[in-house]
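Q: Sequence in, structure out?
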Amino acid sequence: MLLGRVIGTVVSSRKEPTLDGLKLLVVQSCDTSGEATGSSVVAADAVGAGMGEVVLCASGSSARQTEATHNRPVDATVMAIVDLVEVGGEEHYRKS
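A: Exactly. Output:
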């Protein structure tokens, strides 16, 4: 899974019909404190994430194992909205 922050949305007026109804988000990878670290990915949103939230994304075949994405042509899916990241007993990120 990828830890990332939602930095944008993708709007497409024409697309594969099986993608109808899916919200597409731009998610940039981040470190455990929520700071950007690298590349971004377009991910289908299965949990109702919003701008600026830290999320967990699954990719590959795992991205198609949610109710929202089952048998749909997606390669990345937002699977969770992160409330807290703790590493070694130290809090690195907490959703405000």
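The radius of gyration is 14 Å.
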